[in-house]
Amino acid sequence: MSIARIALAAGWLAAGAAAQPPALTIEQAVTQAVEKYPSVRVSLERVSAAAAGIDLARTAYLPRAELLGQTNRATRNNVFGLLMPQPVVSPISGPVLGKASLTNVWGTAVGVLVSWEPFDFGLRQAAVGAARSERERADAQAGVARLEVAAAAADAFLTTLAAEQTVRAARAGVDRALVWEQAVRALVGAELRPGVDASRAAAELAQARTQLIQTERAEQMSRVALAQLLGVPAATLRLDPEPLLRGPAQLDPPEQAAPAHPRARAQNTVVEAARSRQRVLERSYFPRFALQGTTFSRGSGANPDGTTGGAGAGLGPNFYNWGLGLSVTFPALELPSLRARRRMEAHQQQAEAARYQQVLRELEGDREKARAALVAARRIAEHTPLQLAAARDLERQASARYQAGLATAVETAEAQRLLTQSEIDNALAGLGVWRALLAVEAAGGDLTPLLERTRR
User: Fold this and answer.
1) Spatial CA neighbour of 420 closest among 246, 219, 211, 216
2) How many angstroms separate the most distant Cα atoms in the chain?
3) What is the DSSP string of 167-229?
């Protein structure tokens, strides 16, 4: 019977392990965040919208066809005289009759007008180029969004992993404080130590437990932040610490030219977009030519002599026409406004070019700062093992001296706190090097080398 229970319990444990989600590597976290985070999807949709804008600009090369169909019932009184263009008074065709009448008739009109611009002095090509520049700008902005989300996911992963290691060290500190508190209480009960030592041991245990609670809270908050980036529940998140805990990476990150950074490329596309808009304005002050062909028919129940037809006269067209022509339009008085707009775009382009130089300087500064932080992180990682070994020796010696009556409770408590802090520092030192590497490669604009180092 006991064997059956053991087998059943083993089956439950195996089922629970199978239901548990697999541990997530830092590379998988970055990939998942880039694929699912909303800001990246927003950028990609903007790229698609800009690509559709190129197709829209290309439609200007196609001919236009406008269809008309109309039926109305109205009076047919007409007058001589000029009427300025306006949208209120409807035009009436036909002769002017001797007197006005409220007699009304049917009128119909059906027609089609096809218009095509055979040449445009490069205006349409410039418009397509401007649309293409907008698409490149949107694509570059999507690259910036991907880099930012990838860097945020990698940093959140390392932060969560560091918080887990801090919790582990704090929990070990609680265990040591609990053992010491029990030993001190026994010594005090045997009247081998003063009662104040028991109070000091109890206070140290309470402080260790408070530190553990604080580290657990920080670990949970960092886990929630990572889960938000990945779009998964925080309770189901399991991290694979390998190889991040095996030791800090020693390889130097590759040099990345600042102009190749996604931020620099994105700003450069803004400059190019301003230039494209200038080219459109340069092509705007030219005549516009249009080849036009039309065919239409009209019907009316009114006769030229003032009489009207039957009740259904004018419901269908009874006169037909066609025509071919070439129309030329020229915005003669738009030159001042076009010049002002060109000056505006020129200044805008110069401002964006200056902004591009500023971005390059910022990227260079960020990379130098990140490299300095990397050097410091590696030096710290070299010293923390020595600090941890010394703290362990000190704690063992302090505990032994206290048991022998040669040390005070204060010395032993200080040694235990120093050991806990040294364990935390040593656990975080290696991850600090990885975070410094992340900062260097994020400043370079490409996280691929970092992620390749984390593969097993």
Assistant:
1) 211
2) 136
3) HHHHHHHHHHHHHHHHHHHHHHHTTSS-HHHHHHHHHHHHHHHHHHHHHHHHHHHHHHHHHHH
Q: Which domains does the chain have, with CATH numbers?
A: 22-70+109-301+313-453 (1.20.1600.10)
pTM for this entry: 0.78
Tell me how far apart the alpha carbons of residues 348 and 273 are, in angstroms, rounded to a whole number: 10
In the predicted structure, residue 292 carries a pLDDT above the cut 90: yes
pLDDT in tens, 239-280: 888 778 876 556 666 677 778 889 999 999 999 999 999 999
Contact indicator for 424, 141 with CB cutoff of 8 Å: no
DSSP state, residue 143: H
Q: Which two tokens stand for residue 83?
A: 């009427």
Confidence of residue 16 (pLDDT cuts 50, 70, 90): very low
pLDDT given for residue 444 in this prediction:
87
Say if residue 92 is exposed, middle or buried (CB neighbours under 10 Å; 0-12, 13-18, 19+): middle
How does 235-265 read in b/e, with b if 16+ C-beta sit within 10 Å? eebebbeeebeeebbeeebeebebeebbbbb
pLDDT tens for 415-427 read 888 988 998 898 8
Cα 252 to Cα 44, 152, 240, distances in angstroms: 33, 21, 24
Bridge partners (DSSP) of residue 300 are 107
